[in-house]
Every structure is written in structure tokens, then in C-alpha cells.
Amino acid sequence: MPARVDPTIVEQRIVEQAARVRAYGALTAWAALRWRGAAYFKGDDAAGDPLPVPLAVGRACVRPHPGILVVRRQTPLIEWNVLDDVPCAIAARALFDEIIRLSAVRPAVVAIDMAAAAGLLTVAEFWAFLQRHIRPRNGVVLAREATLLAIDDSWSPQESWMRLCWVLDAALPQPLCNTPLFDLDENLLGIPDLFDPVAGVVGEYQGEVHSSPGRRRADDARSQRFLDHGLAYFEVGAGQLGDIRTATRMRQVRVQAKFLPPDQRAWTLEQPAWWRERDQQRRAS
Question: What angle do CA 60, 65, 71 make, to 5 degrees?
Fold first, then answer.
């Protein structure tokens, strides 16, 4: 490669290692998901070190190299194609191989959420793919468990981790995510990261992007709108998702919520016409 090429760019690493594939094989796992446009899959580990690029080559011969991870599982021809001159596993197969690599439920759920957020597939489509893998081996059980917890509506990995804390650690009912809430005059109250419509609880993840004074003021105004309309409210900050006290606080907030019946609520999930029209225009564009 020319000296001017930056080898630290993840796409550059991917395309260089993909050149090792000859007649049979393809990129898979995080590398294929990244190549297909899912920015969440950055190709590094928790310490920030680059991960080897996974190549699904079955029994084909590939010379060992520290920059690649050879996946020996057979990849049927219908499960990969060529994208921008690079052989690449389809999204469902790549996601399945990534879940096997992750080997834990919560990271697997986040991976499914983020693949769905990138528009690569839906949770239902991934479940249909898994149904073709009848025998409970090679990660199918783990993938199915994670898929049952995954959703199409998570907008960030932190939101996914917060939802898993709510469902698994706090043992609370599955919430809605990124669903717009309106007052009874059809004004938008906000689009909370997490919402329990039965209890009337709003949960928000406050990462570094929320730390600027202007963003903080906007967040405070939005949280006050929720409170003014009878909703309970909590925030989770960076570093708090792995703390058991966060789950305890979630349960406490829900216990103290109002659990109002529909006819006594000052908020609604029903979308007004102006919102539906704007949403249709956004989808069309």
C-alpha cells in the first residue's frame, strides 16, 4: 500500500484483509456489518485495540496473519455477496457470527439493536434467519435469547444497555423506546429514551453529549415538561449502568409513579396528524 494510506482507518484494515479471500469466503461478523454501513461496529475491543478482521472461509486455505480471525464455519453462497468489490456476508449471517464472537447476551442484544438502527435488518428478519438454524448449536441458543430482548427502536448502544438494566437487573416490564409523547393539545412533550406507559415513567441516558450548558438547559426543560404532566422521571449517567444501585433506583421510581388510568392522564401516545405527516415526509426523504 502507498505510504500515504492511513492503516488505522477501520475500513482500510477491512479491505486490506478481505483481499486474502480467494475463490470462496467473505468478510463476516463486525467487519461485514461495518462494511455494510453500521458505524457502531468500530473494530476495536474495550481497551481500544484493533480487533482482527473476521474472514469466513470454511475449509479454504488462508495463510495465518495476526490481522485476521479465520472463521471455519461454512458460509452458504446465499449468505454472502459482493459489496463494493469486497465479498461480504449478508447482514443476518454477519450478525450471527458477531454474536458468537461476543459470547454474552447483553453485548449480543446491543449488536442486534445497532444493526437494526443502521437499517441493515429488523429484529423479526434476524429471528427468521435464526429459525433456519434448527439445531441448538454454534451460538443459535445465545442468538435466540438475545433476539428476544432486542428491539428495532434503540438509537444508541447506551440506550440499549439502559433498557437491559431496566428489564434484567430491575426485573421491570419491557418499556417503549424513542416513542414520542404528546400533551392533550397535541404538543410534543419529548421522545424519551425509555418509557413505561403503564406506570408513567420516563428514563433518559445522559452521556457526554448532554454536558454542554445549552444542551443541559434543553434537557432540564424537557424533564420539567414530563414532570408537569404527571410522569415520573429518572436519568442515568455514564458509568452508572453497571451499578446495581441504578436498578434499585429504577424500581423505586416506578413504585412511586402514579399509574394513572388513560382517562386521567395529561399525556398521550396517540400521534397527531401534524406529527404523522412530518414522519411520512422524513421517511420519504
Answer: 40
Domain-wise residue ranges, the chain? 10-149, 157-284
| Phi and psi angles of residue 94, each rounded to the nearest 5 degrees, phi first | -60, -40
- At 7-50, the pLDDT tens digits run 789 999 999 999 999 888 999 999 999 999 999 999 999 899 99
Determine the Cα–Cα distance for residues 49 and 137; give it in Å rounded to an integer. Answer: 30
Residue 231 C-alpha cell reads as 410522569
DSSP state of 199: T
pTM: 0.92
Query: Beta strands 53-56 and 68-71: pairing type?
Result: parallel
DSSP 8-state secondary structure symbol assigned to residue 85: T
Name every residue whose Cβ is closer than 8 Å to that of residue 63 and which is 6 or more positions away in sequence: 20
Give the Å distances, CA to CA, from 203 to 151, 227, 231.
17, 12, 10
CA 125 to chain centre: 15
Helix 123-131 vs helix 140-149: angle between axes, to the nearest 10 degrees? 150
